[in-house]
């Protein structure tokens, strides 16, 4: 294993700055890169070619739309053509997905706060 000085020298020779080890204290804020990576891994930011919750149905490139419930693990799929026919081209995908899950929800407790499904938007 090379020493830290050797790693820094090697990084400098390749034209890159060596990554300095910086330990975070519990009081320190997490770096922006951490939060960006966390959101990317969780699917909150959609790469090109995938649908995101904020898109309108007419802007989504996929032909089959899929939404799953984080609570009951149920998956609902609908063709884009059918979703447009039922809800209109300008309908928001998040609202359409919530309606699809709510129409077939099986977790009913009687309390408004606990009823319903929690949508998770994923790739098809």
- The N- and C-terminal alpha carbons lie at a distance of 43 Å
- Strand portion: 5-15%
Low-confidence stretches: 44-48
The order of strands across the largest sheet is 2-1-3
Overall mean pLDDT stands at 75
Outline type: elongated
Helical segment count: 4
Please report the total strand number as a whole number.
3
Radius of gyration: 22 Å
Structural class: alpha+beta
What sequence of helices (H) and strands (E) makes up the elements?
Answer: HHEEHHE
Main β sheet profile: 3 strands, antiparallel
Report helical residue fraction: 25-40%
Task: Describe the fold and architecture.
A hairpin with a 5-residue loop joins strand 1 and strand 2. The protein has a domain of 70 residues. It contains 4 helices and 3 strands, in the order H-H-E-E-H-H-E. The protein is of the alpha+beta class. A 3-stranded antiparallel β-sheet has the order 2-1-3. The chain is elongated, with a radius of gyration of 22 Å.
